[in-house]
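User: I'll paste a sequence; please echo it back and then give the predicted structure.

Assistant: Echoing your sequence first, then the prediction.
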Amino acid sequence: MPEHYSWWRDDAAEGIFDLKQQPGKSIMKYRNGDLSTTLIEHYLIDEFYFSIILVVDGTGRRLFDGIDTGALKLKLTGMTRFKSGIVTISYDSQ
């Protein structure tokens, strides 16, 4: 891994916070996992986009497992329905 990515292993929340202070484009992260939990716990996510894809029988990690969601203030900002049946909803973090 290149040296300028070393913060990723050491303290992802601090690294993302520092990136957000710099001018430039948005940061986008896909999928769920430990990094998602860290970013949510440190209030580093400005917008959430969820794609709802019907799965009859599936398993996986839930995005907000183990997180105190009482402090999250989310405002619905949009919804898109696709012909395939997938629905994408977006929320701003307040």
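The chain has a mean pLDDT of 81. Residues 3-93 form a domain with the Dihydrofolate Reductase, subunit A fold (CATH 3.40.430.10).
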